[in-house]
Design goal:
With 167 residues, the chain is an alpha+beta fold. The chain is built from three helices and seven strands; from the N terminus they run αββββαβαββ. It has one domain: 60s Ribosomal Protein L30, Chain: A (2-Layer Sandwich), CATH 3.30.1330. A hairpin with a 2-residue loop joins β3 and β4. The longest helix has 23 residues.
């Protein structure tokens, strides 16, 4: 028997998550831009219902576990920005690249583990199409004293039910 096909939003629902509203930009930019078959998101902060879920530096006031959850929220917000740009998440053919910025203390070296919060969520939501290239970068400070910021680049297909539909 074949497994029923589920789309990205059904996979999110199975995890107890929904696509949030796109967070309002904190400066002069748009949440996402499409060029050709690519959608690039602006850096997304760990905003939930209009507020940061935590502030501070990872390795200081923020634990690696809290930062992992922040990276997940950033990825959810990036997914929301992509959906607002293309309308239907089943049009995502591939997550191409993820960049995670982690505001951390000078001695914290666990940025890749924090970035896994975003990477693992994208993998669960988009299946094999969620496997991506990535950078995890430690920085001294992020906007609004956020501990994590994530941007993603996705490839989209012209029709719903693209490569990611049956993954």
């Amino acid at each position: 028997m074949t497994r029923p096909m589920t789309g990205p939003e059904e996979r999110l629902a199975a995890m107890g998550l929904t696509v949030p509203d796109v967070p309002a930009p904190v400066a002069s930019y748009v949440p996402a831009v499409r060029t050709g078959d690519l959608v690039l998101t602006s850096g997304q902060l760990p905003m939930r219902m209009g507020e940061l879920i935590t502030t501070g530096k990872v390795g200081g006031e923020v634990t690696a576990e809290e930062a992992y959850a922040c990276a997940q929220q950033c990825a959810l917000n990036a997914i929301a920005a992509v959906k607002a740009e293309i309308g239907d998440l089943s049009r995502v053919a591939r997550v191409v690249k993820v960049v995670a910025y982690v505001a951390s203390t000078p001695d914290f070296t666990g940025q890749p583990g924090v970035a896994n919060g975003a990477s693992e969520l994208l993998g669960e939501v988009f299946g094999d199409a969620g496997r991506h290239a990535r950078a995890a970068v430690g920085v001294p400070v992020l906007p609004l004293d956020a501990p994590v910021e994530v941007e993603i680049t996705v490839e989209v297909s012209d029709a719903p039910g693209g490569a990611a539909a049956g993954v």
